[in-house]
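Kindly review this record before class:
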Amino acid sequence: MVQDLDRSAAWLFQPPQPVQTTVAGPLGGLTFAVKDNIDVGGWPTTAACPAFTYTAAAHAAVVQTLLDAGASLHGKTNLDQFACGLNGTRSPYGAVPNAINPLHVSGGSSSGSAYVVATGQVDFALGTDTAGSGRVPAGLNNIVGLKPSRGLISARGVVPAAQAVDCVSIFATTVARAAQVLAAALGHDAADPYSRTLSLASTPFGARFRFGLPASPEFFGDENARAAFDEAVQRLQDLGGEAVPVDFGVFTACADMLYGSALVAQRYEAIRGFFDAHEAEVIEPVRSIVGAGRPYSAADLVAAQTRLAALAQQAEPLWRGLDLMVVPTAPTHPTIEAMRADPVALNRQLGAYTNFVNLLDYAALSVPSSFRPDGLPFGITLIGRCGSDWQLAELGQRYHHATGLTQGATGQSLPEPQPIAGLTQAAPPRVRVAVVGAHLSGMPLNGQLTERGATLVSRTHTAPVYRLYALPNTTPPKPGLLRVAPGEGGRIEIEVWEMPLSEYGSFVALVPAPLSIGSLQLDDGSSVQGFLCEPLALQGAADITHLGGWRAYLASTAPARLAFP
């Protein structure tokens, strides 16, 4: 057993030579590590408890799968004991510090796995995730943490924490790498009682998506985290997202059940034989948490499960009209000293936005978002329904690359984005454009839109800050739209069309002077690309603002045009 202080207690076991079964396969050439509650044949498994240690007879199913895919295994990593904790300090082998600032926590329980990825020692690492252990360390170390849908990766050969909701998780510095590993690792395993075959959504969310976020997010006084989340929401909106505030009360109630109800009996059941015989060998506060599950009766557990099912029913309507939820991966980032002084309360804070996810059978992906003014990393988590793993990865990659961040603590730039495995219908990006005159439905130039695959999205109005003019000597007749000061304009009828981004350049090239394409403010406060006119071209043009739109103007002039063709 090795505690390598030069590597901040991240490694618990490293063999003289890595384990590799083949150099071929989809993961050929990649190196990885595994959390030390995952079996590797012939190596010790400790779950960060020396008295619990045994030598594994065989590889865990996921380890064998990854070795067969060509990856080489370089060692086992430290963790919060029995995967019970979200902070990385609950190990007799030492606390794993943050890869960016060693005075702060790494997050847990998969602390060592996150650290060795963030510092570039391996290409990816396996963790486990019951209540956030595969996400919090990612968010706190500027890396990606992929928590797949439950049962997607076999957990056979993993020391359970709460077996019914455990997941094997993946850490990497890029979303594409994490998705590559997931593609190699997934598969039904009949020997795992909770393994299942899932039909994963293969169509991305698209250029426009709607995401829920906490209506009243809690950051426990950490204003740097609050500002970082506000920045993240704005970036998602810039990527085409529409933010929808959601009452997170039901998710909070669900999260509270993990340790505050008979559900904690799952923690006790997972190691019952060892715990009953060697309770004193378990460190605090893990001992108290596991022991709290012992007094509950079977009836208590059934009542808790029924309560959880009721909360799931209450959560379901919140998803209507949403593609995903977005939360801070962790709402604050304490120091190791503060965590040791108040280990239960501060650990609970770290799980505020993670504890409910597995209980409600969701998929999740933590991605780096920014560095706070104090230099600490901040991440967000994209949460989707069960089976949305590839969709989350596609959007997560778009988001991660929009941040301009480097990889982990390495300082290396992000590589080019890669296609996400499992997405068979990658929809091309699309752009919206507002039209006000000859491009309206049924008008002479509408074909310039339809022949480029454009579709009508909505009929709406501009904000009341525009004036509309009938331009003289144009063929076909065209209007000119001019932005004016507030109080000097009117609401002008427009249509919003959407076309493939690949066609947008050729469309804009057809726009003749004095018209141009710029940003239009709509009546609902949003903005979209649309037609505007140079002010000088409006000299001598008829002001038709009072008619409210081009169609109304043409209707008002129709008799005159018939009488004087």
